[in-house]
Model the fold of this input.
Amino acid sequence: MLEIREVQSKREMGKFIKFPMTLYKNHPHWVPSLIADEKNTLNPEKNAAFDTAKARFWMAYEDGKAVGRVAAIFLENYEARWGQKRLRFGWLDFIDRKEVAFALLDTVWNWAKELNVCAVHGPLGFNDMDKEGLLIEGFNQPGSMLTIYNEPYYVKYLEMYGFEKDVDWVEYTFPTPDKNPEIFTKLAKRVQERTPYRLKTFTSSKELVEWGHRIFEIYNQAYDHLYGAMPLNERQIQAAIDQYLKLIDPEFVLGIVDGDNRLVGFGVAMINLDDAVRRARGRLFPFGFIHLLRAMKAENTYLYMLLIGLLPEVQKSGAVALMLNQIVDTCHKRRINRIYCMPELETNTDVQKLWKLFDTDIVRKRRVYIRYLDESARMAYDIKAKRCE
Done:
């Protein structure tokens, strides 16, 4: 018999977090998340997003065996920010059975009706730092610890349930070029000659942490207009500094400063840790961190471009060329042979123009789905919810 149970204890949350490890055991493309990160994200005592959010978590069981999971997140400030009252779903995984998928989605749907929201959309997390977007193309490509991997049948069942496209992301990849594109070299020279902007590098994690608040202040401004974006609060910023900036290699974090040495832009990349996390099965301890340390020094591997953020007044200056030139030079130094870009909105043509200067392929596509509770809610759709680049 199929049963949906709400997660009520730490032990049950442990099962919720680890369910994909059973579902995707020995899958050639799936990569686990770091378990410690998942625990922190889903713990109200650790995740400051819960200050203005409600979340519920459910698991599906059949004859006592776990067969699915889902989370639902209600952001209390979303309506004021985007003009619509919506419920998000995320952390959606299930076996290849319509009954299981529909039972999980029904549970989210019922809470949506209780909250009197106008629509349900996802997969999304609490904010853009969490994984988002269902994989819809690229199932035969290696996954990442940083993004969602799912089998094609997820798409089938979501669309059968009545969900439809709200927005898509694309993911680009290209081999590290032998040299920087000439246009970047010329643009970087022009920036140095005609503007006050200069490249800022970091030599230690300590220095990176000292600049951390400014980095995420720029993040909030640069990403403010993107689909569903919600600004990080002070506690979330500090958590992001602790969780990411203390661990990431400072050589792959770059800044743009103005004439007053004020940070006005940043770029963050990360060397491939996917194979290491897979070998560690998502655990840092007792020995998982050893795999990660080795991966951070590896050669003949690939790099993820995680974030590029520039203040609005800097975005048209060409200063991004300073960072991209440095990234390519660092890849040569570290013998990194390929670069992957994190998901970008399909409408973000400004950034995509940059990648197309390289030998670029689109390797994956992913989607946030939406379903309105009734047709009147669809007709009242606020144009602000579509603001994106």
